[in-house]
Specification:
three-stranded antiparallel sheet; 44% helix; alpha+beta; 3 strands; single chain; 5 helices; Sufe protein. Chain: A
C-alpha cells in the first residue's frame, strides 16, 4: 500500500499550489469537459490552435490535489505543443498509471512525480482528467474545422 506521504508529497503540493488562475478563452477552437463521478472533480479546457499547435490555453479546475497537479503541468507545457505530442503524453500517463509504464519525459518530466498514484486506482481518474479534457478539446477543434470546411455547411 502506498504511504500517503508518497502520494501527497511536497512536489505534488508545490505543483498544485502553482496552478495558474482559472481562465476561459473567448472564442476557442475546441472546448471540452472531463468529470470524475467517483470524486466529483471537473476540468474544463479551451484550446486555440494555430499552425497545428496550441497557441492559447484556458482551463478551470475543480479537482483534488492530484488533478490540480496534473493540470498545473499541462498549463505550464501545452502552449506550443501539437496534437501528436499531447496525445502521446496522455497515452504515456495512462500507461504509467495503469500498466506500470515509464513516466513522460522531456518538458513533461514533472509528471513523474505522480507515479505513486499508480498504486491507488481510485485516484487514476482524477489524475488523468486534464488529459481526457485536452484530447476531447482537440477532437472538438478537429470536428469544428471539418464542419467549417464542408461546403454543405456554407
Amino acid at each position: 500500500m502506498t504511504d500517503l506521504s508518497e502520494l501527497y508529497n511536497d512536489r505534488i503540493l508545490a505543483l498544485a499550489a502553482g496552478i495558474p488562475p482559472a481562465k476561459r478563452l473567448a472564442e476557442p477552437d475546441g472546448t471540452a469537459q472531463a468529470h470524475s463521478k467517483l470524486c466529483g472533480s471537473t476540468i474544463i479546457v479551451d484550446l486555440k490552435l494555430r499552425g497545428g499547435k496550441v497557441a492559447d490555453f484556458g482551463q478551470t479546475v475543480k479537482a483534488c490535489l492530484l488533478g490540480q497537479a496534473s493540470a498545473a503541468v499541462m498549463a505550464k507545457n501545452i502552449v506550443g505543443s501539437d496534437e501528436a505530442e499531447l496525445r502521446r503524453v496522455a497515452a504515456d500517463m495512462r500507461r504509467m498509471l495503469k500498466e506500470n509504464g515509464t513516466p513522460p519525459g522531456g518538458r513533461w518530466a514533472d509528471l513523474a512525480v505522480l507515479e505513486p498514484v499508480r498504486a491507488v486506482k481510485a485516484r487514476h481518474t482524477s489524475t488523468l482528467l486534464v488529459f481526457e479534457a485536452v484530447e476531447r478539446a482537440l477532437d472538438a477543434a478537429a470536428q469544428a474545422k471539418s464542419k467549417a470546411a464542408d461546403p454543405a455547411n456554407a
